[in-house]
Every structure is written in C-alpha cells, then in structure tokens.
Amino acid sequence: MTKLALQIKAQMENVKDLRPSTDDYILMVKTKCISCREEHPRLVGIKPGSELEMTKQGARGTTDLVMKCQFCKRESSAKFEEPTPKTPWWRPYSMSEDGVAEWQTLCVVDARGMDLVGWEAEGTWACTASESGTKFEEVEFDDGTEWTDYDEKGEVPVSIMELEGRWVRA
Ligand SMILES: [Zn+2]
C-alpha cells in the first residue's frame, strides 16, 4: 500500500479556501499499474466513501476504486484516507499570507497495486471571496486551470489561475 497525496497550487486573486464543492466530488485521476508499469489510457473517477467491495481473494473491507489492469489483468484499488476534523476529505487551499502560491495537500489516497500519476480539475469547485466572505459555489475551470468572476459585495475581481496538481508520497 502506498499513501499518495494530491497537492495543488494556484495563483488566487481575492479568494481563499478552494476545494471541491461537495464531499462526494469525483476526482478524475490517471493511474498506472505497478505490476506491468502500463498507464491506463483514460482518466478514471474516484469518489470518497464509495464503499465498493473488493473482488480479489483475501482482500478485506471496502474501497473507493477497483480496477483490473487491461494489460496484465491484475486488480488494483485505491481508497481515500478516512477524514478527521483536522483533515477532511478535501483540505481547502489558500495562498500564503504574503501571496505566494505553494504546494498544499488537497487529499490523501491509499493506493494498492496502482500508482496515481495525473489528475484533472473537472467538475464543480467552491471558494470564498477574501474581501467580503461571499461564497462562490459553482467554480468551473476553463481548460482545467483558470476561473474568473467578480465579487459584487467586495467590489473586486476574483480569479484562480495556473491551477496545477501533482501526486507525491504522503
Ligand atoms: Zn498491469
């Protein structure tokens, strides 16, 4: 089992606390089989709390993603780390006080038999305007990397640019 963290960073203007809009957000990831080292050709979705049964003999408990490698036929699985009050499934991202975009962990996944090698920011995200506290609940990224809007109450433009992510060992 390998514990992998998805870290993200972005240039954010007048917004903070970026995270997927709901807990049951489906994260789209690129996987690689650790037996034959082949990458799965398409992105696959993994959702916290899916409670899928593992079919492999001897495997216990439930998981959030089960796959069979189309090349070597081995089964692999991945599961989000159980949330705690301090570390929810999705940890909100904010830039540092002095406005620097730094890598921060968004979520942690236990991977068995697979490596996670990519991701895409699909679906709906949420963030909060730092001036007025206005919540933006329908953030969708153009090209998976950019979002712009206007904070009416704070009378400032808001944006998220250069969103990127990477998987690291947690
Ligand atoms: Zn394989």
Structural write-up:
This protein has 170 residues and is mostly beta strands. The chain has one domain. 0% of the residues lie in helices and 51% in strands. It has no helices and 14 strands. It has strands spanning 2-13, 15-20, 27-33, 44-46, 52-53, 62-63, 65-68, 75-80, 104-112, 114-120, 125-129, 135-139, 147-151, 156-169. The protein has a six-stranded antiparallel sheet with strand order 7-8-9-1-14-13, with no helix packed on it. It has a three-stranded antiparallel sheet with strand order 2-11-12, with no helix packed on it. β5 and β6 form a beta hairpin. The N and C termini lie close together (12 Å). The mean pLDDT is 94. Zinc ion (ZN) binds next to loops.
